[in-house]
Design brief:
Length: about 200
């Protein structure tokens, strides 16, 4: 099997035929080192890992979440295979679980039913990701979704918290730049998007 990691989009080989079992056999290979692999309806989507600035922002946010999340009985993880079906999974940038996986299988392929909140970092002006993590989480009933829009200018960094109801994901809170995003649920959240960037 030949795998392509150039650009963003479905890998053409085995398109529509990817499952967690096939991924376990084929994905841990050198050609995919340094890439994120997600799957939508059996179509594998491979994207490069984010640049350093985005990695710092992700780690900073996850670290900020840990004390309040743990006090509320939640567990903050980094990127995991958040799995909806055997042929559909995403990799949020930060994943908050209400229950830790049970056993090796769930640790590799974390059931979406264990997820309290998925966090996605997107770069302002970037091409739309074909995975549509927000829609997948909404359809699976993940209660909360946080989207952070990255910008090199701290004052334009944006964070939007969405809480699921019967009609989808209405906006619960939004903050831009040095404004603070505050929410009591799903655990106490209080941060300013601009503070996620490393100091210049």
């Amino acid at each position: 099997m030949r795998s392509s990691t150039s650009g963003t989009g479905p890998v053409p080989e085995l398109a529509g035929g990817w499952t967690v079992r096939r991924a376990e056999r084929h994905l841990p290979v050198g050609a995919l080192a340094g890439t994120r692999h997600e799957c939508v309806d059996g179509r594998l989507v491979v994207t490069p890992f984010p640049p350093a600035v985005e990695s710092v922002a992700t780690a900073t946010l996850a670290s900020a979440f840990v004390p309040a999340a743990e006090a509320a009985g939640r567990h903050v993880l980094g990127r995991v295979n958040l799995t909806f079906t055997a042929s559909c999974w995403i990799q949020p940038d930060v994943t908050v679980l209400h229950t830790l996986p049970a056993g090796d299988e769930q640790e590799r392929w974390v059931p979406a039913t264990l997820c309290t909140m998925a966090v996605e970092f997107v770069r302002r002006g970037a091409r739309r990701n074909p995975v549509d993590r927000l829609r997948r989480c909404a359809a699976a009933g993940v209660p909360w979704f946080l989207r952070v829009e990255l910008d090199r200018r701290p004052q334009r960094m944006t964070a939007t918290l969405l809480g699921r109801d019967d009609g989808g994901y209405p906006v619960v809170g939004r903050a831009v730049g040095h404004q603070r995003l505050r929410s009591r649920l799903p655990f106490p959240i209080d941060f300013a998007p601009a503070r996620l960037l490393p100091p210049t």
